Amino acid sequence: MITYVSVGLLGLLALSIPVGIVLFLLGFGVDTFFSPFPLTKGLGNLVWSTSNNATLIAIPFFVLLGEILVRSGIATRTYTALDRWVSWLPGGLVHANVATATMFSATSGSSVATAATVATVAMPQAEKLGYDPKLFSGAIAAGGTLGIMIPPSINLIVYGFLTQSSIPQLFLAGLLPGILLALGFMAITVLICAVRPELGGTRRVFPIGEMLRALIQLIPIILLFTVIIGTIYKGWATPTEAAAVGVAGAIVIAAIFGGISVSMIAESVVGTVKITSMIMLVVIGASFLNFTLASAGIGRELSEFLDGLGLSPLATIAVVVCIYIVLGFFIETLSLMVVTIPIIVPLIVAQGYDVIWFGILMIVLIEMALITPPVGLNLYVVQGARKSGTLSEVMLGTIPYVIAMMVMVLALIAFPQIALWLPAALQ
For residue 219, which of 82, 72, 70, 62 has the smallest C-alpha distance? Predict the structure, then answer.
């Protein structure tokens, strides 16, 4: 059955069938060929119970929040302000790409939205200032992945929903690794541009007065992050309620900065509906597939297979990491999460590992999948914003940042407290 699901998944995706539909088709196949029960009779109830969950309401709110920030021009002003502060480093404006992605991640919750925003704002500067197109675009694609690590994160919300674990705890656990990963991206950029200065374009130093005035442009993002995350950790609001407050705050900020209009709100709502519909189709399809797989006994099969290998807990983690790296080449990231979590997480927890820690480890692996071909979504988003050059340039540019992610994976395995310290400290 495992072979059927794996081959079927890859085969149907190769036919360019939408991922959500693929998951439903696989579920029907498992029900027909491997289950002794007519599981499709419970499909209606399953769809309703999956979609009728208060936790998932946070997803459209966070998507709408990101849409408003992009379309109101707040993201552009944030990029300009950070340019004033980090362009003196070796690599110059490349650091602004990473820094803007980090700050935008603190309100967006979506890696693709983060990459698209930074790419749209930054790409016009690349040729003008003489940056290497590979390094410049690779940094944007990699920085965009921080959108699913730094809270609030849509992927962490989905992980918490599927594993019934604390979303505030997951948000706290993702904060330090996300910041360390951003600093790692900047450090590896400095190293590359110190060895090959011609790749980093022109380093610019701005007057201190101009730098201080630029901080005003960062206040909206900082305020939104403080309100959203602060209300969750103080217990004043659930993630869903905090997301709604964040949307209201984004509208107020857009109005203050003169970026609000009826057409902007309408475009933001339409964009939110499209993205949320795609996410929910994948989540519901994966829930049905997981239901049929569990009923047909795939969890038992996988457990018996791993037990038969006689692996230690550390070796089990190593195998799981390798599985996610390989699957990340071929499967879209959200789909990869929702398909594997109900199968993999119980096995990991049975080995004595913390479910919160594994969620962060999984997110780093999912981030890698976003910038590794052939299905790395951020690669295509950045290439689309470039409007010139080849996709292979973006792929080559992400290699140093993939290495940084692998270092983070090893660090999380060797030092779990990187993820667990902050939740424990603030509990």
Answer: 82
- Between 55 and 415, the more confident residue is 415
> pLDDT by residue (tens digit) across 313-331?
899 899 899 989 988 887 7
Among residues 394, 404, 343, the alpha carbon closest in space to that of 372 is found at 394
Per-residue pLDDT, 169:
92
Residue 369 CA to residue 325 CA, distance in Å, equals 7
Using CA atoms, how far residue 385 sits from 116, 179, 380, 381, in Å, is: 7, 26, 9, 6
Nearest Cα neighbor of 142 from 415, 425, 405, 426 is 405
Q: Do 223 and 253 form a contact (C-beta atoms < 8 A)?
A: yes
pLDDT in tens, 270-323: 888 887 887 777 778 777 777 777 776 666 666 677 667 777 889 989 989 998
State the average pLDDT for the chain: 82
118, 100 contact by CB (below 8 A): yes
Rounded to an integer, what distance in angstroms lies between the CA atom of residue 116 and that of residue 395?
Answer: 16
Grouping H, G, I as helix, E, B as strand and the rest as coil, residue 101 is helix
Angle between helices 377-386 and 111-128 (to 10 degrees): 40
- Alpha carbon 78 to its chain centroid, in Å, reads 20
**Do the Cβ atoms of 184 and 409 come closer than 8 Å?**
no
Q: How far apart are CA 404 and CA 381, in angstroms?
A: 21
* Residue whose pair of structure tokens reads 């940056």 in the numeric block: 131
CA dist 20 and 33 (Å) reads: 20
**Radius of gyration in angstroms for the set of CA atoms belonging to the chain, rounded to a whole number:** 21
Amino acid in position 62: F
pLDDT in tens, 161-211: 889 898 889 999 999 999 999 999 999 999 998 888 888 777 788 888 888
Q: Residue type at 86?
A: V
Q: Is the pLDDT of residue 1 over 70?
A: no
Q: Which amino acid is at 310?
A: G
Contact 138, 400 (CB under 8 A): yes
**How much is the pLDDT for 170?**
93
- Which pLDDT belongs to residue 302? 67
Which of these, 25, 30, 21, 40, lies nearest to 2 by C-alpha position?
30
Domains of the chain, by residue range, sit at 10-425
3-class DSSP string for 36-97: CCCHHHHHHHHHHHHHCCHHHHHHHHHHHHHHHHHHCCHHHHHHHHHHHHHCCCCCCHHHHH
d(CA 154, CA 334): 9
